[in-house]
Amino acid sequence: MLNYINAELYRNFNRKYFWMYTSIFVALAILANIAFLILGVDSRTEALSAMLDFGIIVPTFIIAGFVDFVTAEENKTDTVRNVLTFGLSRTKMVVGKIITTVIFAFIAQIIILSIFFVLYFSLYGVNTNVVNVIVLGFQKMLLATPLWIACICMLTLLSFLIKNNNIAITLYLVIIIFDKVAVEIVSTFFWSKFDVVQNILITNKLKDIVQEGLKQNNILYAITMGIIYIILFTGLSIIYMNKKEIK
């Protein structure tokens, strides 16, 4: 499986897709720094804090591009069978796809954040308040990581289930954007007890991380929920791919 992951990393690193996609967010990071020029020191620190909090939510959308070029695109073009002909099991292929996507997502995150903070420090310097904001922001990101990986696993499953990568990604985005609204509609008009589902929505838990920070119960719940979803979506992907007829 390690050879497969290495091959996937090499294949996608040598394509323009990854670099162009990452460059979009690098450009946004640069623009954010330029926008900070109009703010005073205190307002700039508050804006940095708000942006880091926003950075807890936005990866749920950004990961769509990474799943697209690692898994969805290959499934669409029916080239998955080429991998299986070399003797790699379907289970290892699924796990390898998820690991590869996670690696690409975090490489992109490192690139984007590195460029943002190097530019920020160069333009505005560093003080105690800024350091505290950044440390808290990174702690929240670390806590959100299992939930981000769960989103990757969810979209990977949808990409296996739906051959059209555009439809798979659109469905994923609809789920992420409207999951809370859907639960509220069902609980309001059909079954009031369904509202309990709000407690297990990934987006709601990410918002809790933003708003409540590093409370002990928040830490345990976010990590536990993330791991459960990772196992669930990965398991369903493995079951589906092992039963799927690939010609």
Automatic annotation (TrEMBL):
Keyword field contains NAD: no
Pfam family, one: ABC2_membrane_4
Signal peptide coordinates: none
Transmembrane segments annotated in the record for this chain: 18-41, 47-67, 98-121, 141-162, 169-191, 219-241
Keywords, in A-Z order: Membrane, Transmembrane, Transmembrane helix
Name assigned to this protein: ABC-2 type transport system permease protein
Species for this entry: Clostridium cavendishii DSM 21758
Lineage of producing organism: Bacteria, Bacillati, Bacillota, Clostridia, Eubacteriales
